[in-house]
Amino acid sequence: MEFCPKCGSLLVPVSSEGKTYLVCRKCGYKKEASSKKGYMVRGEVTEDKKEKLLVVEGIRNREKEKIEEEREIIKEYYEVFLESMESEEE
Ligand SMILES: [Zn+2]
Predict the structure, then answer these.
(1) Which of 15, 24, 26, 32 sits CB 3.0–4.6 Å from 4 for a disulfide?
(2) Per the confidence metrics, is the pTM higher than 0.85?
(3) What domain count does the chain have?
(4) Are residues 84 and 51 both part of a single domain?
């Protein structure tokens, strides 16, 4: 934990353009975080994102299965439709 040298408020880690900065919410003071601390912060963020991604992917997979199932049904309908069209022409 680091504090603002100007006003003494807690510096909040903010990721920007692949770098981690420590930003003071009170006065706007900003400094680049040391690499060690930066990695620590990024590691935490990545774990959090990973969990969220897994949840999103789980939902997507279920939706994908549903869509594929619907596609099969549509395909069957379409084939039946084509068959009836053909028989009408005859
Ligand atoms: Zn400050």
Answers:
(1) 24
(2) no
(3) 2
(4) yes
Task: Work out the burial of residue 20: count CB atoms within 10 Å of its CB; fewer than 13 is exposed, 13-18 middle, 19 or more buried.
Answer: buried
20 is a domain residue: yes
User: What is the C-alpha to C-alpha distance for residues 56 and 51, in angstroms, rounded to an integer?
Assistant: 9
Cα 2 to middle of ligand 1, angstroms: 11
Write out the residue range of the structural domain in which residue 18 sits: 1-33
Residue-level pLDDT, tens digit, the chain, 90 residues:
889 999 999 999 998 888 889 999 999 999 988 755 444 545 555 556 666 666 666 666 777 777 788 888 777 777 776 777 766 665
Q: Which residues are CB-neighbours of 3 under 8 A, at least 6 positions away?
A: 9, 10, 11
Q: Does residue 39 sit within a domain?
A: no
